[in-house]
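Model it.
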Amino acid sequence: MSRDAFLSSPFWHGSIDGARAVLAAHPDLTGASLDIHVAATSGDDVAVRRFDTLLAGATRR
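Modeled.
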């Protein structure tokens, strides 16, 4: 649920403050458990590139 709350805050409710509050309360959303959507929303460009590389490799198989 915290992932969904993080992703919906800035897009559906128009406030990055809500997303930041969710991240502060749930630090497990960042790092290794990150998915491409959370990475993009939180501005983690390194993780987005990593996911892009992984996903591109998966589609070539």
